[in-house]
């Protein structure tokens, strides 16, 4: 086992669902092991990803998330909740973004600050985080966005919870850079999408059939003149094909702005007169404040075996997707994709809080590297490394809980346990969403007939949910 970490001060970067879960877990560690825990959030309120800003311009004081005007969750409210902190009964089965944001903020108010041991710093943008190995301290440089003052504080440990929806990924394809040169405003990422009304009577090409690609194309069905959705060859299109206003095409191999704003697909089909291109192609991992651990050579000239990030598709050398193996005083929360954000973050937070307090010991560095190598052999190096699509997310959280149970560390913060009932809720959540999507297609058709832009459907629907009473959508 590794030597015990002697942690007295912790900085948590990010005030979204993950960062708040960590703050809550640290505040509940028995015997008050930490002298101070500071949480930094660059926005003026908690919520992270769920903080909506219709001003889709990034600058030093304005940050916007991928939230768009009309958005609801992809999973039911039974899955979205923190442990012992249910969403209000008044929430829709698939809550609106406003309901989730209010819920997260209510959760932040419920956290026990332990006589100011825990401090929240809103409007605080972290500029840099650097490790001084001589002092064995992390130095966090941050700016108060209210008064522009810059300050530096030092900590024994850092927990990164800034999310992974900040840096859009747009694939490099022949002709795309020329297109952006001639008409830069006609090419956007889904992060910049806000409302279907902005695309009225436009011919729109959407790249990618992820959750955002399907949702945005559906919303545009009410206002756009025509919609083309570019999907991979083996993509499952049964949901998309229900929408008669969307035409699926294969992957684009060439963009040709000067040839009537056209694109050519890999099966040599041509689409012309495109007004707007929306890339729903995901995001890259990015820690702009952590350059010394991202670059191959740190600021003090010491080389690391591997940087944290190379191409942005994964974060390297992490133990169980959390602890940086070469320096476990640096940890991450909610990096994996296709997870249930609140409960998953709590499962990781329960482990991190116990490790940082010294109650739970990590394996040796060589043992952690060996386990990471085994995971790489299974999943490869790249975007699939952090993919924990159901039931992988469930199995992961159960494994973390077993570590706590087997070592008798049940005092302190507790995450939601994944029992058989919760498994059924998770399993049926996607089925219910699929049923709702079928109803949504009919709904957007009526909006289009009435020349109305998209707004969220509040249609009452009844369905079976295991061991839950009949519910209304």
From TrEMBL:
Report what the protein is called: FAD/NAD(P)-binding domain-containing protein
Q: Which organism is it from?
A: Ascoidea rubescens DSM 1968
Q: Which family does it belong to?
A: Belongs to the FMO family.
Q: Does Iron count among this protein's keywords?
A: no
The record's keywords, sorted A to Z, are: FAD, Flavoprotein, NADP, Oxidoreductase
Q: Could you give a GO molecular-function term held by this entry?
A: N,N-dimethylaniline monooxygenase activity
Q: Name one Pfam family in it.
A: FMO-like
* InterPro entries to which the protein is assigned, alphabetical: FAD/NAD-bd_sf, Flavin_mOase, Flavin_mOase-like, FMO-like
Record keyword NADP present: yes
**Domain of life assignment:** Eukaryota
């Amino acid at each position: 086992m590794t030597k015990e970490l002697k942690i007295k001060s912790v900085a948590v970067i990010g005030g979204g669902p993950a960062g708040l879960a960590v703050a809550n877990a640290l505040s509940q560690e028995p015997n008050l092991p930490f002298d101070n825990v500071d949480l930094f959030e660059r926005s003026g309120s908690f919520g992270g990803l769920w903080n909506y800003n219709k001003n889709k311009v990034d600058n030093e004081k304005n940050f916007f998330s991928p939230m768009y005007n009309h958005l609801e969750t992809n999973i039911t409210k039974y899955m979205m909740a923190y442990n012992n902190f249910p969403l209000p009964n008044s929430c829709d089965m698939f809550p609106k973004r406003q309901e989730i944001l209010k819920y997260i903020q209510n959760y932040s108010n419920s956290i026990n600050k332990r006589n100011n041991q825990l401090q929240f710093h809103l409007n605080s943008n972290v500029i840099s985080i650097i490790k001084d190995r001589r002092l064995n301290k992390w130095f966090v440089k941050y700016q108060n966005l209210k008064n522009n003052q810059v300050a530096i504080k030092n900590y024994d440990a850092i927990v990164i919870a800034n999310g992974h929806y900040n840096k859009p990924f747009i694939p490099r394809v022949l002709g795309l850079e020329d297109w952006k040169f001639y008409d830069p405003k006609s090419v956007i990422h889904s992060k910049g999408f806000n409302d279907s009304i902005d695309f009225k009577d436009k011919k729109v090409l959407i790249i990618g059939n992820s959750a955002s690609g399907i949702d945005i194309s559906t919303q545009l069905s009410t206002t756009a003149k025509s919609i083309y959705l570019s999907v991979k060859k083996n993509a499952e299109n049964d949901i998309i094909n229900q929408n008669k206003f969307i035409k699926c095409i294969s992957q684009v191999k060439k963009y040709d702005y000067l040839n009537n704003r056209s694109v050519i697909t890999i099966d040599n089909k041509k689409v012309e007169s495109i007004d707007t291109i929306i890339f729903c192609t995901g995001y890259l991992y990015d820690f702009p404040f952590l350059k010394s651990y991202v670059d191959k050579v740190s600021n003090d000239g010491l080389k690391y075996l591997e940087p944290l990030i190379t191409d942005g598709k994964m974060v390297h050398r992490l133990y169980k997707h959390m602890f940086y193996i070469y320096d476990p005083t640096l940890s991450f929360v909610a990096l994996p994709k296709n997870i249930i954000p609140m409960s998953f973050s709590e499962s990781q937070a329960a482990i991190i809080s116990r490790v940082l307090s010294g109650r739970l010991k990590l394996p040796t560095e060589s043992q952690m590297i060996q386990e990471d190598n085994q995971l790489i052999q299974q999943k490869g190096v790249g975007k699939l490394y952090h993919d924990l699509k159901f039931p992988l997310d469930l199995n992961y959280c159960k494994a973390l809980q077993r570590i706590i149970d087997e070592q008798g560390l049940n005092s302190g913060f507790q995450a939601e346990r994944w029992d058989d009932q919760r498994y059924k809720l998770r399993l049926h959540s996607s089925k219910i969403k699929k049923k709702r999507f079928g109803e949504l297609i009919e709904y957007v058709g009526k909006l289009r007939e009435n020349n109305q832009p998209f707004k969220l459907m509040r249609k009452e629907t009844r369905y079976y949910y295991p061991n839950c009473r009949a519910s209304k959508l």
